[in-house]
Design brief:
With 228 residues, this protein is of the alpha+beta class. Helices cover 24% and strands 35% of the residues.
Length: 228
């Protein structure tokens, strides 16, 4: 009887320890959201109080962030619980470099903690986009696979009975330095990668002959066919 009682007490103690350990939160600091965004005087960032969209109800309560640089202008929505602070290094107002700090009202709340790092990453992408830009390179591997710019469209010849013509999205630059290589560039990282994915889906790389459309440094492990 005494051994049974000790066994029950031991099991209860272990359960309490596991329960208390699983619900303990180590910290609520965002490793990405806490990093400052550094930019030079050629970039202008404005946090406007106006709603990001007057038509889409999803953005009625979100303010507008406008980032302007040598390559163009980007805008993005800012959640109401996100705060932006512009800081001059060492307190020098005439400094050539400015830092932008992103914070949230309550880092213990799950949604705010999730959007903290996401907002910081999106703003940083906007800064990089208007200064350096983004690019994606497509490599065509396969007999007869090639591309060309025809009538303002990207024409793909991938072994089908007809060429595939794709409209080039506004804001993107598409060039074909060689018939088997396509270069996509723009200030919006999402649009650049999205258009690259749309082109790639017409002939995804396959592992047996390693043919298809490869994006940037994409590789695929070769598989052996069935052996008799």
């Amino acid at each position: 009887m005494q051994q049974t009682t000790l066994r029950i007490i031991g099991q209860t103690t272990r359960q309490q320890l596991c329960r208390s350990f699983s619900t303990t939160r180590v910290g609520t600091m965002s490793h990405i959201g806490g990093l400052p965004i550094k930019y030079t005087s050629e970039v202008k960032i404005e946090h406007l109080p106006t709603a990001f969209s007057a038509i889409d109800s999803r953005f009625f309560d979100k303010t507008t962030l406008k980032v302007t640089g040598p390559l163009g202008e980007r805008t993005m929505p800012i959640e109401p619980f996100v705060s932006l602070e512009f800081v001059q290094p060492n307190g020098q107002a005439d400094s050539a470099e400015t830092q932008l700090l992103v914070s949230v009202g309550n880092s213990a709340e799950r949604k705010q903690r999730q959007m903290w790092g996401t907002t910081r990453a999106c703003i940083n992408n906007c800064v990089i986009g208007v200064t350096e830009g983004f690019s994606a390179t497509l490599r065509f591997v396969g007999v007869g696979y090639r591309a060309a710019i025809e009538n303002g469209q990207l024409a793909l010849r991938l072994g089908y009975s007809h060429p595939i013509n794709l409209e080039i999205p506004e804001g993107l630059k598409v060039s074909v330095p060689t018939p088997t290589r396509v270069l996509i560039s723009g200030i919006d990282l999402q649009q650049v990668k999205l258009f690259a994915a749309k082109v790639r889906k017409w002939k995804k790389p396959e592992p047996y002959n390693q043919k298809g459309i490869f994006v940037d440094d994409e590789t695929i492990r070769k598989k052996d066919g069935k052996k008799k």
